[in-house]
Amino acid sequence: MASNAAVPFWRAAGMTYITYSNICANLVRNCLKEPFKAESINREKVHFSLSKWADGKAQKPVLRSDQPEV
Amino acid sequence: MFRQASRLLSRSVAAASSKSATSRAFSTELPSTIDSTFVEAWKKVAPNMDPPQTPSSFMKARPSTASSIPTKLTVNFVLPYASELSGKEVDMVIIPATTGQMGVLPGHVPTIAELKPGIMSVHEGTDVKKYFVSSGFAFLHANSVADIIAIEAVPLENIDPSQVQKGLAEFTQKLASAATDLEKAEAQIGVEVHSAINAALSG
């Protein structure tokens, strides 16, 4: 069978579906009225710390956070 | 005791494999009961331990495929943070598939549809509920159950038209000035989403 129909433009530009979907969701959230907009932005806040391991030791962690610096 | 265990377990495995050699039923048609042969064999070997649970024992049984077309469509509409509709019986839903607006009636052919930013409407009698969906998927099953998943779904009243116009203008301008493929793609997505919201608000 021939391969699927033309790839979507975002796939052709090297973007994955998850990235595309998240961008769409963010754009929709930006267009909301208050207070829904504030609620949705609050809901989507993330806070995580990621560290790669090498030689059995954790390297410097990368912190990604939407919390304001305390 | 353990010699018996392997014999009992291999007997239940042999029974299962002979079943799978024949044609497989759809998951919606299998009975939702736990395998009693396995439970009996387990109890003989380890009477003090509970038999292991399988994921299907935690799930509600799926409605089976009826022989005649059901009158109502069961809709499960979920978002990552909330379950909008759960097992709701409706007459029809219209979903914004990438191939165009798709009307789903009970007895629809099983389909997996990717959704584009657009309006999803749920029709129940004379009630019509509309949501603007950012993107997602719709799984239509043979037993007239529709699983629709989206990342964001907002009622049209919650959208601010002035923000939409601003966004559309901003992204149209970004599209014109974009350099790399990725920037072009992002700007294109922005234009598409905002145009869809515009069309939804005015349509």
TrEMBL record, chain A:
<keyword id="KW-0066">ATP synthesis</keyword>
<keyword id="KW-0496">Mitochondrion</keyword>
<dbReference type="Pfam" id="PF04627">
    <property type="entry name" value="ATP-synt_Eps"/>
</dbReference>
<keyword id="KW-0406">Ion transport</keyword>
<keyword id="KW-0472">Membrane</keyword>
<dbReference type="GO" id="GO:0042776">
    <property type="term" value="P:proton motive force-driven mitochondrial ATP synthesis"/>
</dbReference>
<dbReference type="GO" id="GO:0045259">
    <property type="term" value="C:proton-transporting ATP synthase complex"/>
</dbReference>
<dbReference type="InterPro" id="IPR006721">
    <property type="entry name" value="ATP_synth_F1_esu_mt"/>
</dbReference>
<keyword id="KW-0999">Mitochondrion inner membrane</keyword>
<keyword id="KW-0813">Transport</keyword>
<dbReference type="GO" id="GO:0005743">
    <property type="term" value="C:mitochondrial inner membrane"/>
</dbReference>
<keyword id="KW-0375">Hydrogen ion transport</keyword>
<comment type="function">
    <text>Mitochondrial membrane ATP synthase (F(1)F(0) ATP synthase or Complex V) produces ATP from ADP in the presence of a proton gradient across the membrane which is generated by electron transport complexes of the respiratory chain. F-type ATPases consist of two structural domains, F(1) - containing the extramembraneous catalytic core, and F(0) - containing the membrane proton channel, linked together by a central stalk and a peripheral stalk. During catalysis, ATP synthesis in the catalytic domain of F(1) is coupled via a rotary mechanism of the central stalk subunits to proton translocation.</text>
</comment>
<dbReference type="GO" id="GO:0046933">
    <property type="term" value="F:proton-transporting ATP synthase activity, rotational mechanism"/>
</dbReference>
<comment type="similarity">
    <text>Belongs to the eukaryotic ATPase epsilon family.</text>
</comment>
<comment type="subunit">
    <text>F-type ATPases have 2 components, CF(1) - the catalytic core - and CF(0) - the membrane proton channel. CF(1) has five subunits: alpha(3), beta(3), gamma(1), delta(1), epsilon(1). CF(0) has three main subunits: a, b and c.</text>
</comment>
<protein>
    <recommendedName>
        <fullName>ATP synthase subunit epsilon, mitochondrial</fullName>
    </recommendedName>
</protein>
<keyword id="KW-0139">CF(1)</keyword>
<dbReference type="InterPro" id="IPR036742">
    <property type="entry name" value="ATP_synth_F1_esu_sf_mt"/>
</dbReference>
From TrEMBL, chain B:
<dbReference type="InterPro" id="IPR001469">
    <property type="entry name" value="ATP_synth_F1_dsu/esu"/>
</dbReference>
<dbReference type="Pfam" id="PF02823">
    <property type="entry name" value="ATP-synt_DE_N"/>
</dbReference>
<keyword id="KW-0809">Transit peptide</keyword>
<protein>
    <recommendedName>
        <fullName>ATP synthase subunit delta', mitochondrial</fullName>
    </recommendedName>
</protein>
<keyword id="KW-0406">Ion transport</keyword>
<keyword id="KW-0813">Transport</keyword>
<comment type="similarity">
    <text>Belongs to the ATPase epsilon chain family.</text>
</comment>
<comment type="subunit">
    <text>F-type ATPases have 2 components, CF(1) - the catalytic core - and CF(0) - the membrane proton channel. CF(1) has five subunits: alpha(3), beta(3), gamma(1), delta(1), epsilon(1). CF(0) has three main subunits: a, b and c.</text>
</comment>
<comment type="function">
    <text>Mitochondrial membrane ATP synthase (F(1)F(0) ATP synthase or Complex V) produces ATP from ADP in the presence of a proton gradient across the membrane which is generated by electron transport complexes of the respiratory chain. F-type ATPases consist of two structural domains, F(1) - containing the extramembraneous catalytic core, and F(0) - containing the membrane proton channel, linked together by a central stalk and a peripheral stalk. During catalysis, ATP turnover in the catalytic domain of F(1) is coupled via a rotary mechanism of the central stalk subunits to proton translocation.</text>
</comment>
<keyword id="KW-0472">Membrane</keyword>
<keyword id="KW-0999">Mitochondrion inner membrane</keyword>
<dbReference type="GO" id="GO:0045259">
    <property type="term" value="C:proton-transporting ATP synthase complex"/>
</dbReference>
<dbReference type="InterPro" id="IPR036771">
    <property type="entry name" value="ATPsynth_dsu/esu_N"/>
</dbReference>
<dbReference type="GO" id="GO:0046933">
    <property type="term" value="F:proton-transporting ATP synthase activity, rotational mechanism"/>
</dbReference>
<keyword id="KW-0066">ATP synthesis</keyword>
<feature type="domain" description="ATP synthase F1 complex delta/epsilon subunit N-terminal">
    <location>
        <begin position="73"/>
        <end position="145"/>
    </location>
</feature>
<dbReference type="GO" id="GO:0005743">
    <property type="term" value="C:mitochondrial inner membrane"/>
</dbReference>
<dbReference type="InterPro" id="IPR020546">
    <property type="entry name" value="ATP_synth_F1_dsu/esu_N"/>
</dbReference>
<keyword id="KW-0496">Mitochondrion</keyword>
<keyword id="KW-0375">Hydrogen ion transport</keyword>
<keyword id="KW-0139">CF(1)</keyword>
